[in-house]
Amino acid sequence: MRVLKNTSNKRLLYLPPESIKQNPFASRKPAMHDEDRQLYESIRDNGLLQPITVKKNAKFQSYEVVCGQRRLDVCKRLQIKQIPCIEIEADDFESCLFSLIENLKRDDLSFFEEAKAIDLLIKQWGLTQIETAKLLSTTQSALSNKLRLLKLTSSQQHSIETIGMTERHARALVRIADDNLRDKALDEIIVKRLNVQQTERLIDEILKPIEKSKPKKSKIKSGKVTDMRFFVNSIEKAVKLMQQSGINAKTHTDETEEYISYTVVIPKSKAALG
Predict the structure, then answer these.
(1) Which of these, 265, 2, 253, 267, lies nearest to 125 by C-alpha position?
(2) DSSP H or E stretch at residue 38
(3) Which residues contact 198 (CB under 8 A, 6 or more apart)?
């Protein structure tokens, strides 16, 4: 399990925006959302009120963003000469994690971007889903459901994002394993503008014949074993194994109409062990 270092050792710097490198683990795609326009206008009118978080990249003798990539991009567009930055000590793992956590808090981050960022974190650092869930303060089942969205093809993800479907639409489509069949279902959802409930019913109808055609698994019937010989034979095999190992075990059996009494005598003394 990864242990995060203490990042309380911080200092305030003023750096030219152009000198700060992008976080290589950033999960966001560059785009102009309404929220980005509001951020642009805020920084243009009031300056950068919230410093961005950076770390020193010793390899390139420069600074790179840990948290605040959007704010940095806006400052670059506005050609601001210097901006306030908080420098922290963080390795690549922590930088990736902090960037992901910050982005997950944003309302305009798509659920596919979230899934890709989490998948990157797991693969880059060899984490388990349980470890990742703990780091992100979520449940393993919620994280697993998020990652399952990546089973959809790139074109399917693009269509879902373009149309503005919900994550529940996407999760319903994941139930279809065949890509071509999933494409047909997606086309029908788009053409008919199906809501989540209608989409789930459509998927159920598509999967019905597939489920029926699957061979049924044989079920082991549970219940009482009426043939006591099964247990007697098991005991006799165990006794025989002890005798073959040099243990002078002895047995005695009494049987009546009501019960079978099976006694096994195992010697404790070394002499009797042979």
Answers:
(1) 2
(2) helix 34-46
(3) 192
Beta bridge partners of 21: 64
What token pair was written down for 189? 């959802």
The domain 11-108 is placed in CATH, from the list 3.40.50.300, 3.40.50.1370, 3.10.129.10, 3.90.1530.10, at 3.90.1530.10
Q: List per-block mean pLDDT (blocks of 10 residues) for the chain, which spans 274 residues.
A: 54 93 67 71 93 85 88 94 92 80 71 89 87 89 95 96 95 96 97 96 92 64 55 76 77 66 72 48
Q: What's residue 210's pLDDT? A: 81
Give dist(CA 251, CA 105) in Å, integer: 71
Domain boundaries of the chain, sorted by first residue = 11-108, 110-151, 152-212, 229-265
Query: Which tokens belong to 116?
Result: 């890709």
pLDDT the model gives residue 80: 95
Structure tokens at 111: 């659920």
What is the chain's Cα-based Rg? Answer: 32
